[in-house]
Amino acid sequence: MNLLWRTLLRNRGRVASGSLLIGLHQGCQAVVPILIGVIVDRAVATGSLGRLALWTGVLGVLFLVLTVAYRTGTRQLMRAIADEAHRLRLEVAAKVLDPRSEVRTGDVLTISTTDADTTSYLLDYLPRLFGALVATAISAIGLCLISVPLGLVVLIGTPVVLIGLQRAAPRITRRIAARQEVAGRAASLATDLVTGLRPLRGIGAQDAAARRYRDASRESLAATLRAAKTLGWFQAASDTVSTLVACGIAILAGWFALSGRISAGELVTVIGLAAFLGEPFATLSAAPGWFASSRASAERIEAVLALRPAAPPGGDNPVPPVAGECVGVVVEPDAGALVALLDDGSPDVLVAPHLPELFSGTIRENLLDPDSSEQLGEVLRASAADDVVAAHPDGLDHAIADRGAALSGGQRQRLALARALLARPRLLVLHEPTTAVDAVTEHAIARGIRDLRHRPGSTLGTLLITTSPALLAVTDRVIVVRDGTVVATGTHAALAATDDTYRAAVLR
Questions:
Q1: Which of 326, 356, 358 shows the shortest CA–CA distance to 429?
Q2: Cα 161 to Cα 173: distance, rounded to the nearest angstrom
Q3: In angstroms, rounded to a whole number, what is the distance separating the alpha carbons of residues 479 and 335?
Q4: Whose CA is closest to 131, among 142, 139, 143, 141?
Q5: CATH assignment of 326-506?
Q6: Is the pLDDT of residue 278 over 80?
Q7: Which of 134, 133, 149, 132 is nearest to 270 (CA)?
């Protein structure tokens, strides 16, 4: 609920003005049948053309006011909704872009789109609810001026009906929240599976992934049907009650007209108000479902915003700069904080992220720096990217799509590694650079990195933040960081022989 309050507070100006304008629009609509009744009694019944022209002009002004009020009010509210949804997406993006945060890609997609939009719709629901209350109040007052019993039907019946309908609100909230949660999980899973489709095919796991998505989709369908059933019963009950109230008012008015207690114009007004009240009654009865949807989406966004990324290791940097060394770093439970700490923008340090990014263009354009072309062949061999180049007839001039969409995960990793090696930074930080390649290629890459950057006399340093035994085996030493503290240092072989925790983390 804190997010919903914050959403209202930072849009309070537009919501307040929009609510007043929507209230004015609804109030004018409620006055229309009242004014028509006045025209019938004071102009039509008397046969006065002057009064007919006067009151018709008043009716025209009323329609002008309600039209302008509606257009201006909805413009204010739509602007507020769009701006708030944008702010929420930026907040979610800022949270998940923190390299120390771990949020699944699919979750980010559903939360930053559907949930952000649904939460921002609160800025429309409140003005509509306010407008419905204004319309109901004016209608009740108009009916009271004609006949107190008719007005009391609305003044007493409306709160009773709303209180009764509100008893279903908690159940609606639970069903809608459950529906959005499982639907979000299904969408998240679909996004993650599509993103990793090539690696899944590579290891023959596509059938298992399809079964997993099928189960999640069926769960989502079942939750959607349960929520739809609850909302359907609720809507049917609210429509039935609203119709009965409107029919009761019309029947009572007809009786009063036949007994001479109200005039023909007043009968027209009552029938018009009875018909008009269906709209605000529908809004009032649908409100619990609307607010339940916004609340459920807000809770999903709050869950992301409340994530506390792993704190950077305290004290001095636990991994000192290396010169001429190849150092392995095993971080438990999460390496994100250490990667973020090292990625400080220093010109002497290049941090190659775990998830590589390629841009549209040729392989050559994704790799080459004008000053590094002499090393290209050597770097391609060291990173095992020469196989990627050789797999295409155009070689280095082969065109790749944005983000390397047509390449497998292993091909993207190897090209990104080649690009990092071509840069020749004094300190190169590689975070799990071989997770999408096979074991044989991983061993070749490990030896290639070692041979390329750590020849005799080299002053270049490399940090391999990984749990891969193939990569750790080529390092000069390994540093084990657990919960932000260095707990062990030694060679890979020595740690594997003496440290049970290290062995469990690495030798899997």
A1: 326
A2: 19
A3: 13
A4: 139
A5: 3.40.50.300
A6: no
A7: 149
Find out whether 153 and 143 touch, Cβ atoms under 8 Å: yes
Determine contact, residues 416/358, Cβ cutoff 8 Å: yes
- For 5, the token pair is 């309050």
Distance CA 292, CA 169 (A): 8
CA dist., res. 452 & res. 385, Å (int): 14
What token pair was written down for 377?
A: 């062949």
Residue 409 near residue 196, CB atoms below 8 Å: yes
Partnered with residue 400 across adjacent β-strands are: 361
Domain ranges of the chain: 2-305, 326-506
- pLDDT at position 313 is 47
Query: Buried b vs exposed e over 328-351: b needs ≥16 C-beta within 10 Å?
Result: bbbbeeebbbbbbbbbeeeeebbb
* Cα–Cα separations (whole angstroms), residue 3 to 9, 85, 160, 295, 298: 10, 12, 31, 9, 6
Q: Class assignment of domain 2-305?
A: mainly alpha
In the β-sheet with 349-352, what is the strand arrangement from edge to edge? 349-352, 427-431, 461-465, 326-332, 477-482, 485-490
18 pLDDT higher than 60: yes
Convert the pLDDT of each residue in 440-482 to its tens digit.
888 899 999 999 999 888 899 999 999 998 899 999 999 998 8
Helix, strand, or coil (residue 487): strand
C-alpha 99/C-alpha 353 separation (Å) is: 9
